[in-house]
Amino acid sequence: MKLNPLSCSAVALALFVSCGPCLHAQEPPQPAPQHHPWDDKSLSPDQRADLVQKELTLDEKIQLVHGTGWGALRPGAPIPLGDNWGASYVPGIPRLGIPPINMQDSAVGVRLSAMMGRYSTLLPSALGSASSWDIQGAQLYGDVIGRELRAQGFNMSIGGGVDITREPRNGRNFEYAGEDPLLAGTMTGNLMKGLQAEHIMGDIKHYAFNDQETGRNIFSANIGKKAARESDLLAFQIAIGIAEPSGVMCAYNRVNGTYSCENDWLLNDVLKKDFQFKGWVLSDWGGTHSTVKAALAGLDQEMPGEVHGSFFDDALKQAVQSGQVPMSRLDDMDHRILRSMFAAGVIDYPVMPRDVVDPFKGRDDAEHIAEESIVLLKNENGVLPLSADSIHSIALIGSHADVGVLSGGGSAQVDAPGGNAANPHPGGANWGESVYFPSSPLKYIRKHAPNAKVEFNPGTDNASAAASAKSADVAIVFVNQPMHEGMDRPTLSLPDSQDALVSAVAAANPHTIVVLETGGPVTMPWADSVQGIVEAWYPGIGGAQALANLLFGTINFSAKLPVSFAKSDADLPFPEVPGINLKDVTREITVTHDGKKVSIKVTDKPPFDVDYNKQGAAVGYKWFEQQHIQPLFPFGFGLSYTTYEYSGLSVDSQGRTATLTIKNTGQRAGAEIAQVYAELPAAADEHYKRLVAFDRVDLAPGESKTVTLDLNPLCLSVYNVDKDAMEEIPGEYKILAGPSSADTPLTATFTK
Ligand code: BGC
Q1: Do 289 and 428 belong together in one domain?
Q2: Which residue's CA is minimally distant from atom 2 of ligand 1?
Q3: Ligand 1 in contact with 213 (CB < 6 A)?
Q4: 158 lines ligand 1 (CB under 6 A)
């Protein structure tokens, strides 16, 4: 049974705890479990799924391949019994012991928990976490999400964004893991691995090339197969190879003219055949456009679907009965879903929504991840770390730094405990609202400098901010770039005249430090006039504590950029976000709502193409290198309070591993992220290097470590269109190693 979710939400939020037990306190007694042949855990997931499938009726087969509607996501939509108020619900088959699938968005923490009177941990943005280059950190990130989904009665995450940063102004970059296929794929894959270890099904999205939000339902990303396989699709391949996720969500946009969710090449040829993906393909919400075409192209489940009337329910049943879609295809869809449920353990370890989220453990984990995610970009004259002993006054300016830290919006929005710290109002976050979490930089900076005068100025008036900065030893200006699903930023510039604010403060105080809370890269016309620059991304519920620890040097900086920061929009492959200036058009479309066909008006861009062949696989740092353009801050760059020396690179004759030595030459302990790049043989005709390995190495002061890194063979390969295969070509490979993509002092070669 469902109680009114609002009845206990206020109490739960005030107490900072979940109210799961009060929602389920009056559940009727469950029938004694029955035993089925597929309960045998010694059988493989495929064998177990086969046994279940023998028992399925046609209606049950159809029931598994679509959701039951928008539910909690759309006010007024019906919420069926058993639906856990998430993003989607697929009823189970109780007579066979198959539980329902309750999915929830959870890109940076579990979404929409306040509505259910619950609490979820806001982690640093996924892009922030990618800045840690820490595989264990990524698994911890997934673990937090997995255990909180479980505690809230969900058995599937639909986070796991791995679309690479082709478009640095993309409103969803904060949900993704940066511009490089190896880094993005490795971090996202390990995140999913950590999540799935909680016996929660994972999902990787948005497949594929959903690299901008402008016109996302209609634009066509046009790209040749070779460039596609060596860029965006490679990130998916690596992530899928690591995590073997249950689901892959196909994207809204079209690829080479065909919608992703009915794109035979993307789904059947690449994902299922070449990547050997064994899970199921679910459509993005409303991203299914046909029945027969989509089913034959490899779509396995329509989301959010309807009980009756959408593409994959009655219409699919008829298509199967008439032979337009073979029964074997429907069986394949069901097999993929059921085998994934067995493989992830959601049948053997069903979720018990009687658990409670542990907000303190979540906060500690979020703080740890934030400490590894925040990047030091500039530290002139050692302005950082701040010394509590010698600083008498600090002017803290802008971006609601008195009350909280910014979070990212859209379907990745996590509800802030107690509501938006900067804009309190009843109810959950509104779509598009900039939500601040109650992690106050002012409070934690004061804690580190108890004897200093630390004053906050809102930064809404440049003259007043400058006056406040002038009277202090140090000025710390917080600036922000709110981002959310469904929109891109028109430029890389900070919004709301914040560049002028920084300039005014920097002119008033030579010891100015800028802290950026951004979804992705931004331009910094004031970079030369400030002493310190810190990229905090959206740092999560432990963000202020982490930031204060780093600013005062209790913890050392270690993070490095997972994206390049351009000097200006003009340096990007597309100086303007493609399609952003196209005039919206309104058209009528037919949708199914509660089983009935209704006509609605939608306003969107007219169809347009985005020519990704312009840059091909040269995304991010590869583009800058190929074009001989100097970025403001390069991919892989980040400073620390200590210094490192690289020496002694060697590569084995087959190019499988590289060995090098790193020494901490400074006075403080630190973690250095070593990066290994490759330049392919001349025959590849490539004018950039590729990241092929990385390692995060902890080093005490004076300590040296020799590390051996595995070079990723896919990253050393090119895609051969004729053979339809990735292959390493003959010739001499140059291996380069160092602290960033722009600083690779060590080189070695091997020949294939
Ligand atoms: C987003 C997906 C999300 C889904 C369900 C869509 O608008 O693109 O990422 O998972 O909504 O909320």
Answers
A1: no
A2: 284
A3: no
A4: yes
Helix (H, G, I), strand (E, B) or coil at 483: coil
Tens of pLDDT, residues 560-586: 999 999 999 999 999 999 999 999 999
Q: Which atom of ligand 1 is nearest to the CA of 175?
A: 9
State whether 393 and 482 are in the same domain: yes
Give the model's pLDDT for residue 29.
58
Q: What's the CATH code of the domain at 727?
A: 2.60.40.10
Nearest to 264 by CA among 182, 329, 348: 329
The pLDDT of 482-500, averaged and rounded, is 98
Cα(284) to ligand 1 centroid in Å equals: 6
What are the φ/ψ torsions at residue 512 (nearest 5 degrees)? -105, 135
Q: From 446, 647, 648, 620, select the one nearest 547 (Cα to Cα).
A: 446
CATH code of the domain in which 124 resides: 3.20.20.300
Residue numbers of the domain that contains 501:
366-563
Q: Which residue has the tokens 């339902």?
A: 217
- Counting ligand 1 atoms within 8 A of each CB, the residue from 101, 485, 487, 604 with the most, and so the one to mutate, is 485
Q: What's the rounded mean pLDDT across residues 427-440?
A: 93
pLDDT digits (tens, 9 = 90+) for 39-72: 999 999 999 999 999 999 999 999 999 999 999 9
Residue 170 pLDDT: 98
Model pLDDT for residues 599-657, shown as the tens digit of each residue: 888 889 999 999 999 999 999 999 999 999 999 999 999 999 999 999 999 999 999 99
State in Å: Cα 727 to ligand 1 middle: 35
How many Å apart are CA 88 and CA 70, to the nearest integer? 7
Edge-first strand listing for the sheet containing 88-90 = 88-90, 101-104, 156-157
Atom of ligand 1 nearest to the CA of 158: 10
Average pLDDT across the chain, whole number: 94
pLDDT at residue 356, as a whole number? 86
Q: What is the distance in A from the centroid of ligand 1 to the CA of 667?
A: 47
Please determine, for residue 245, whether its predicted confidence score (pLDDT) is greater than 80.
yes
3-state secondary structure of 312: coil
pLDDT digits (tens, 9 = 90+) for 301-316: 999 998 888 999 999 9
The answer to whether the CB of 87 is under 6 A from ligand 1 is yes
- How many separate domains does the chain show? 3
**Hey, whose CA ends up nearest to atom 8 of ligand 1?**
284
Per-residue HEC secondary structure of 501-543 comes to HHHHHHHHCCCEEEEEEECCCCCCCCHHHCCEEEECCCCCCCH
User: Tokens in use for 748?
Assistant: 């070695």
Q: Is 207 in the pocket of ligand 1 (CB under 6 A)?
A: no
* End residue of a domain, out of 547, 563, 579: 563
CA of 656 to the centre of ligand 1 (A): 39
